[in-house]
Specification:
- By secondary structure, the chain is of the alpha/beta class.
- The protein is 38% helix and 27% strand.
- The protein has helices at residues 40-47, 69-76, 93-103, 108-121, 137-150, 167-184, 195-201, 219-223, and strands at 2-11, 14-24, 29-33, 55-60, 63-64, 79-82, 155-159, 187-192, 204-209, 212-217.
- It has a 6-stranded mixed sheet with strand order 6-7-8-3-9-10, sandwiched between helices. Strands 2-1-4-5 form a 4-stranded antiparallel sheet, covered by helices on one side.
- A hairpin with a 2-residue loop joins strand 1 and strand 2 (14-24).
- It is globular, with a radius of gyration of 17 Å.
- The structure holds adenosine-5'-diphosphate (2 copies).
- One adenosine-5'-diphosphate binds at residues 11, 14, 16, 34, 36-42.
């Protein structure tokens, strides 16, 4: 579903990614594990078309992205992304969730129904008309997750989605990740510096180290010493 082919990214003279190669299969949960500063966000941003690689190719369902603007727009619509810092704007929870649907020109009744479903899923149905900025960090992150899901993305990208959250919120988000993957078949790529979280959630893991995937495999393959 996602192919990374010798992907590199430099910021000026700083080499962040230096030949990342690997594949994410359709329908799997894939963890990018690496220490802080190893380039996890950078890699996710390249996949999400928020930044362009310095070299190499990224293919999604066989189509190279960053190569043709027209195709990139339709591919971007297949993806939802949740950022490390819960990003909600100053409006109601419902408005925050509706954004992607409005851009897609959905009808009001469809938007209402989908917001309801998404908020049910993340356990925030009763918060629909609350101002999003008054929620806790964990709740805001669930709003961000509802916003990413409501467009029914084929690929969900999560950049350290549980960093800085309390343990109850971490467990909730982890539970949602597993359920979204299992019930909707969504391909999920998330980053974490927590190898235990990778082990708990991921079908396969890529270990990002010194600008490359030093290992790619199942948790058992990656964490068992040879
Ligand atoms: P991680 O998500 O693994 O913590 P990042 O992808 O955020 O790592 O960052 C990797 C490195 O790239 C860091 O050294 C960071 O300072 C650098 N970096 C990230 N974005 C930029 C940018 N826009 N300009 C310059 N350097 C950047
Ligand atoms: P458009 O292509 O006209 O920007 P979208 O529905 O793709 O419409 O985007 C709606 C809003 O959500 C925009 O502000 C866009 O930046 C943001 N967005 C869309 N897709 C993503 C994504 N995969 N990751 C992050 N933000 C996104």
């Amino acid at each position: 579903m996602i192919e990374l082919d010798n992907v590199s990214k430099y910021f000026g003279d700083t080499r962040v990614l230096d030949g990342v190669t690997g594949k994410v299969n359709r329908g799997e949960i894939f963890a990018i594990i690496g220490p802080s500063g190893s380039g996890k966000s950078t890699l996710l941003r390249l996949i999400d078309l928020l930044d362009t690689p310095t070299g190499g190719a990224i293919r999604i369902s066989g189509t190279e992205i960053h190569a043709q603007h027209e195709k990139d727009l339709s591919i971007r619509r297949m993806m939802g992304m949740v950022f490390q810092k819960p990003a909600v704007f100053n409006a109601t929870v419902a408005e925050n969730v509706a954004v992607g649907l409005r851009f897609r020109g959905a009808s009001k009744s469809e938007i209402d129904a989908r917001i309801g479903e998404a908020l049910d899923t993340v356990g925030l149905a009763s918060y629909r008309e609350r101002r999003a900025r008054t929620l806790s960090g964990g709740e805001m992150q669930r709003v961000a997750l509802a916003r990413a899901m409501v467009i029914e993305p084929e690929i969900l990208l999560l950049d350290e989605p549980t960093a800085n959250l309390d343990p109850v919120s971490v467990a909730m988000i982890e539970n949602l990740v597993v359920r979204i993957n299992r019930d909707l078949g969504t391909t999920i790529v998330f980053s974490t510096h927590d190898m235990y979280q990778g082990q708990r959630l991921a079908h396969r893991i890529g270990v990002l180290m010194n600008g490359v995937f030093s290992q790619v495999g199942t948790p058992r393959e990656v964490f068992t010493l040879p």
